[in-house]
């Protein structure tokens, strides 16, 4: 049985990278958690938040309000672009799999 990894603090940029990795790998939450040394639950939650409301929902809003390093509009767009590319890659992998199954008569 594997040990549960304790939740750790992550930056917004880290969360974006983790979500990007997870989406690009067919929503493999376990692999993303292991690769980035965070918990499965964190990864699942971040992907769910991203799918619901985008990059802005990945911000950590806990604690008292204080000035926080915010991403510029350009950085947000770049991050969203990376996530969309990962989603496109996932969809292409699914299409390729279906084509392969059709080729070998499994569908």
Description:
The protein has 107 residues and is mainly alpha-helical. The protein is built from four helices and no strands. Helix 1 packs across helix 2 and helix 1 crosses helix 3. The termini are far apart. About 5% of the residues have low confidence.
- Mean pLDDT, to the nearest integer, reads 83
Proportion of β residues? under 5%
Structural class: mainly alpha
Helices, by number, come to 4
Tell me briefly what this model is.
The chain is an all-alpha fold and 107 residues long. The protein contains 4 helices and no strands. The longest helix has 31 residues, at 73-103.
Q: Which short descriptors sum up this protein?
A:
mainly alpha; globular; 107 residues; 62% helix; 0% strand
In terms of topology, how is this protein built?
Blueprint: H1 12-24, H2 29-36, H3 40-53, H4 73-103
Helix pairs in contact: 1-2, 1-3, 1-4, 2-3
């Amino acid at each position: 049985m594997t040990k549960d990894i304790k939740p750790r603090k992550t930056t917004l940029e880290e969360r974006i990278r983790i979500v990007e990795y997870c989406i690009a790998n067919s929503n493999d939450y376990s692999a993303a958690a292991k690769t980035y040394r965070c918990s499965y639950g964190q990864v699942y939650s971040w992907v769910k938040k991203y799918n619901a409301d985008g990059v802005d929902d990945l911000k950590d809003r806990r604690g008292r309000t204080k000035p926080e390093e915010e991403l510029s509009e350009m950085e947000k767009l770049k991050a969203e672009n990376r996530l969309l590319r990962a989603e496109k890659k996932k969809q292409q992998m699914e299409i390729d799999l279906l084509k392969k199954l059709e080729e070998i008569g499994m569908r």
